[in-house]
Structures are given as C-alpha cells and as structure tokens.
Amino acid sequence: MAQPHILILGAPGAGKGTQSANIAEEFGVEHVTTGDALRANKEMDISDMDTEYDTPAEYMDQGELVPDEVVNAIVDEALSQANGYVLDGYPRNLEQAEELAEMTDLDVVLYLDVSEEELVHRLTGRRLDPETGDIYHVEYNPPEDPEVEGRLEQREDDTEETVTERLRVYRENTEPVVEHYDDEGVLERIDGDQAPEEVWEDVKETIEDSV
Ligand code: ADP
Ligand code: ADP
C-alpha cells in the first residue's frame, strides 16, 4: 500500500509539530513543514518575485504570511519527493488550499482544536533543541537532561507581541481553510486541549481508521 498522505491543521501552538513527529515515526512518513523549511531559508533572496520584502525573515519576524509564490514552490518540491507525508503549516489560506488540491490528494485531514488562551501559553513557553529539533515547553514538557535544558532556544517569533499577531493572521486567513475542509466533510476534529499522550491516542486512532 502507498504510504498515507496526512494533513494536520491547527492554530499556531496547537501541537502540530509535536504530533507530526509522532506520526512520522509511527507511520513511516516524511514530516513536511513549511515553518522549518522557511526558517532554514530565512535569508533567501526573493526580491525577483515582486514581493513587498526581500527575504522570508522580514515576514516571519512580524508574524505575517510569507507570499504564496514562495511557499507553494517549497511544498510542491517537498511533496513530489516524499513517499507518504504529514504536511504541517500549509495551507494557511484558501489560495494555498487550492494549490494543494492541484498538487496531491489527501487521505486524512486532522484538525487540532485548542482554546485561544492555551495557545498563547503554549507558544510563549515553547523551547526547541537546536541539535535534535525536539520540541519542549518550560512548564508542560521540560527536558530531563540538564545538558539539553542548557542548550534550549526560543524562536524569535514566540514573543507575546508576535504571537498575538500570528493568532490574528490565523483567524483571518487560516480559519477559512479549516471551514473549507469541514464543508467538504473530510475534517477530523481532535480535542487538542488534552495532554500530549491523549491527543496522540486520538490522532493515531483517527489515522488508522482513515487509511
Ligand atoms: P506555528 O508554530 O505558528 O504553527 P510555523 O513554524 O508553522 O508556526 O510558521 C512560522 C512562520 O513561517 C509563520 O508565522 C509564517 O511567517 C511562515 N509560514 C509558515 N508556513 C507558511 C505558509 N504556509 N504560508 C505563509 N507563511 C508561512
Ligand atoms: P505547533 O507546531 O502547532 O505550533 P508545537 O507542537 O510546537 O505546536 O507545540 C507548541 C508548544 O506546546 C510546545 O512547547 C509543545 O511542547 C507544547 N505542547 C504541544 N502539545 C501539547 C499538549 N497537548 N499539551 C500541552 N503542551 C503541548
């Protein structure tokens, strides 16, 4: 059987990265994430694309969306090379959802539903291990190893001010995407307010039932 094509939707901080890592390991698919891809290419020169700013960094540091042209190309390339994937961070607006429909078919569309108050708390407390890419939280999921704790980093856009803007951008641009898949009848809503292990149980079961 071909490896599954999985889309994971949710607000910034909903737990998409955390659950995508579980999915990639359990189902042997590639984790395709536009956030990580863009962070790795933050200083890329996009001035020839007739965009407002010359690099992705200038959009990301303000919590704004990087132009579709840039992101669509990244996703198209990554999906064409993946044998099964969990796609995280895309589509973030209806135009990107249309593009995605042209590129690939989806076996399951998951939506992690998390309350807004909790999102702010999760994002401002998020920390990353630069060596492994593992995701931690100062309160909910601190590392046990003091050496790991010592090297943890905070993302530049996980400050309270940028988080507020990212959530506004999410409501305006990405909530319609969630509604779009809901209207199509393919959206699998997961209670993302639960503890990570409980969310994972629901995610795993939903994927197993869908593919
Ligand atoms: P989050 O943890 O908030 O879900 P991501 O790591 O997915 O954040 O994204 C970080 C930033 O990268 C976004 O605020 C945005 O600037 C940019 N970005 C990521 N994915 C996209 C996308 N599909 N379209 C436009 N910009 C994107
Ligand atoms: P996203 O990729 O959707 O932005 P992350 O997976 O990076 O979200 O999670 C955001 C923060 O919340 C991280 O610090 C992570 O450790 C924490 N987190 C993820 N899932 C949960 C959960 N179910 N309960 C509590 N904290 C969580």
TrEMBL record:
The record lists the lineage as: Archaea, Methanobacteriati, Methanobacteriota, Stenosarchaea group, Halobacteria
**Assembly with partners or alone:** Monomer.
Signal peptide coordinates: none
UniProt-recorded name of the protein: Adenylate kinase
Q: Work out whether the entry's keyword set contains ATP-binding.
A: yes
**Source organism:** Natronococcus occultus SP4
Q: Which Pfam families match?
A: ADK (PF00406)
Reaction(s) the record says it catalyses: AMP + ATP = 2 ADP
The free-text domain remark for this protein reads: Consists of three domains, a large central CORE domain and two small peripheral domains, NMPbind and LID, which undergo movements during catalysis. The LID domain closes over the site of phosphoryl transfer upon ATP binding. Assembling and dissambling the active center during each catalytic cycle provides an effective means to prevent ATP hydrolysis.
One Gene Ontology biological process? AMP salvage
